[in-house]
Amino acid sequence: MLDAICLFDESNPITYSIFKFQKLSDADIEKYRQALMCPACAGKAYYRKASKDGKAACFGSRYHQADCREFKPSAAKEREEQHAIEVNQLLVDSDAMMIDFSRQPRSLKSRAERETQTQKQAPIQKQAQTSPELLSVSSSSDRVAAHSSNVEKRIASEGLEKILHSLMRGSELAESELWVYTDEKYRWRAKNLFVNFADAEPTETGAPRMYWGTISHVDKELFWLNPADSKEVGIPIDKIVEPLKLRFGLDERRDFEGATMILFGKCFWNKAKNRKIIQLWGNDINRIFISKPEEEG
């Protein structure tokens, strides 16, 4: 995208060309970058600065409408859409889903590893286990719907990559009644587990959720990720930044800009009660997945 509309002042929207926007002061860029949208379909947009190896600055969006003139189909987008189709089919074919946090991202696996993992993806027969602790933080309808622990159920297994891509491409997972296991003991209704950054709220019991959405940018010290979906949310990464960069190929700040992310963590207020913090559960790098953006949105 060569242009984006800035809604920082909603009464006075400004259309910036990428050439004009990148010439703004660093302070203005940081102030405006979370208020950008596509001029064609009004989808939430992001700004990526020029890279050290010569890639030009650009605007992009992970929220284009399918008929948007700025939307450029690609192999990556087609794969993400296929993931959404597969997850929607999973909702029909399976009684529950187990999140496999140990599953390596596709880009980091060898062919042999992928073939082995494919065999593990087939739905497995497993006894469902109820958890009084997690049922207590679910809705009353969830408690009423709890099944006996001796009922055999079809439980599919999926990694974070496919789950994130499906959510970004509009799968029905986040609104479904599907039971989702975060390990062999604890389960949640999908509609209570998956939360977009824009809807993140501190939980009374400190119970974790699967938070997902788009990253706007990271601060210069690489301490905080700032979601594009909400200016009120911050995600601390100072304790995991190096393994995070290594695992997902995030070589410079630009690589975070416009990336999508899902993580298992808890949401709480900062001391001043003016910002919501989403903390990765146990700072476990396996419980987070980041999908880098393409060069063009």
Overview features:
9 helices, alpha+beta, OB fold (Dihydrolipoamide Acetyltransferase, E2P), five-stranded mixed beta barrel, five-stranded mixed β-sheet, single chain
The number of domains: 3
Question: Numbering strands along the chain, what is their spatial order in the largest sheet?
Answer: 7-8-6-9-10
Computed over alpha carbons, the radius of gyration is 20 Å
Strand content: 25-35%
| Class from helix and strand fractions | alpha+beta
The H-and-E topology, N to C, reads as EEHHEEEHEHEHHEHEEHEEEEHEEE
Biased composition (Polar residues): 118-130
Biased composition (Low complexity): 131-149
Region (Disordered): 105-150
Compose a concise summary of this entry.
Residues 131-149 have a biased composition (Low complexity). Residues 118-130 have a biased composition (Polar residues). With 297 residues, the protein is an alpha+beta fold.
Your description of this structure?
The chain has 297 residues and is an alpha+beta fold. The chain folds into three domains: 3-61, no CATH class; 75-192, no CATH class; 194-291, Nucleic acid-binding proteins (OB fold (Dihydrolipoamide Acetyltransferase, E2P), Beta Barrel), CATH 2.40.50. The chain has nine helices and 17 strands. It has helices spanning 18-21, 26-32, 75-93, 111-120, 132-135, 140-144, 160-168, 190-193, 241-248, and strands at residues 3-6, 14-17, 36-37, 45-48, 58-61, 96-99, 124-127, 152-158, 179-181, 187-189, 194-196, 209-218, 224-227, 233-236, 260-269, 276-280, 288-291. The strands form four sheets. Strands 7-8-6-9-10 form a five-stranded mixed sheet. Strands 12-13-14-16-15 form a five-stranded mixed β-barrel. A three-stranded antiparallel sheet has the order 2-1-3. A hairpin with a 7-residue loop joins strand 1 and strand 2 (14-17). Helix 3 (75-93) crosses helix 7. The longest helix is centred in the N-terminal third of the chain and has 19 residues, at 75-93. The radius of gyration is 20 Å and the shape is globular. The termini are close together.
